[in-house]
Amino acid sequence: MQRKHGELAHLAARPVLLFVVEIALRPGGDAEQLAPVQRFLEFQAHSHFQDLSQILTLESGASRLSRPLAQHWNVVPFAVPTGADTVTLRVNKLFPRERYPGDGRELALMTREPSLHGDAARHAHVVRQQDNLVLNRT
Predict the structure, then answer these.
(1) Of 137 and 13, more confident
(2) 114: closest CA among 81, 82, 77?
(3) Residue 32 near residue 71 (C-beta atoms within 8 A)
(4) What percentage of the chain's residues is helix, strand, coil (to nearest 5)?
(5) What's the pLDDT score for residue 12?
(6) Under 8 Å between Cβ of 87 and 59
(7) 4-43: string of b/e by CB count within 10 Å (b at 16+)?
(8) CA-to-CA distance for 19 and 88, rounded, in angstroms?
(9) What's the rounded Cα separation, in Å, for the pair 76 and 127?
(10) What tens digit of pLDDT does each residue of 76-128 get?
């Protein structure tokens, strides 16, 4: 998978484009030979907000999932539609500029390298874990 950084939007009312994840093709394949199996994207995202107010939205084709992020590290699971070649991640709010003076970047959250797998049981377990993490913070 490759990660392409997108341009950040400057309108607070609109979600901020974080990056687009390019999902790996089958070995030796091309764009017309995407794996026709259910795949699951999983990655870690770190939010600095304590009040569950930062919402991460993942989109791929007609599939869309919005998840509140707890403070610190979250494991983000997403069921990738069959045949999809990209997943777009957006977040609703940036980290306050006054928290990182002298850094010219616009920061929203930290992420670790994404992984792609086909294990539905693992995906269901990670969904339950993340849902429980958010419930415990409310």
Answers:
(1) 137
(2) 77
(3) no
(4) 15, 40, 45
(5) 37
(6) yes
(7) eeeeeeeeeeebbbbbbbebeeeeeeeeeebbeeebbbbb
(8) 6
(9) 8
(10) 999 998 888 888 888 888 888 888 888 888 888 888 888 889 999 999 999 99
Amino acid at 96: P
Which residue shows structure tokens 């339950």? Answer: 128
Structure tokens at 60: 């791929």
CB contact at 8 A, 110 and 72: no
Q: 85: buried, middle or exposed (CB in 10 Å: 19+, 13-18, 0-12)? A: middle
SS3 135: helix
d(C-alpha 68, C-alpha 52), whole Å: 6
Tokens of 5: 């950084």
